[in-house]
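Homework help board

Subject: predicted structure for assignment chain

Our instructor gave us this sequence and asked us to write out the predicted structure in token form, then describe one feature. I got the tokens but I'm not sure how to describe them. Can anyone check?
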Amino acid sequence: MTDAPALADSLRRIAEALERMSPPAPTEPDFSGATFFRFDGSTRTFQAVETQALALELLRGVETQKALVVAALGRFSLRMPVNHLLLWGARGTGKSSLVKAASAAEARATPTLKLVELDRDHLPAMPGLFDRLRGRNERFVVFCDDLSFEAGADQAKSLKSALEGGVGGPPENVLFIATSNRRHLAPERHDEAAGMLAAAEQAEETVSVSDRFGLWIGFPPMDQAAYLAAVHAYADRYNLRTPELDRRALQWAQRRGARSGRVAWQFIKDLAGERGRTL
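My token output:
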């Protein structure tokens, strides 16, 4: 005959052991002290980060793109309908800088706007992140930089499910913005061993994710005029004008083999360091 007190004690100890083994419930995040945060998908925690966002007026050669992003964030802050954004195009053309600059500018006007950065490796945690943010008073820009699906379709499925696949859908107070060098987010090549059919299915999975973004904003490579305009804007802002500015900036771009906003900023950093100036 079973000893009832002993059985009850065994069940109690088993329950306590299971409770110790289970992960602790995530603490309620505090978004009051900062504008920029990073979400760790493995620990389900938010970390405030200090980000030196560039002033919007310093971003040159992307006036059309700037107007579209600023308008979208403005409508989002006013709780108006807005599509998720995909900023795609040449590397170094200011995609991520624009997202941060526009978010910082909008947050100054609307302090309840917050930017939460999610690493692409943590995309499977995105549905849980949306659940954490749903129903809060703040408005959240969830930002994924350099989005692509090198590892296959699993991450694409997670993102697609978070954006449109769930019963509840994405939260009303969340706007998802991603940047990518590729318009359709797909890998440049597929695993030949997987076969043509599997490769086609994987390509369809990744391309279908880009369809979840209602607003695509392209960033073409910079021409020389736009590149020099960016250099001049930085030089004026940090008082680094010199008679040889254009010649040196073009030589710098030639050595790098590219003209972009990133290359312009790197040139200005080098020029400031050469002159013993801080930025």
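Reply (TA_rk): Your tokens look well-formed. For the description, you could write something like this. The chain has a mean pLDDT of 83. That's the kind of observation they're looking for.
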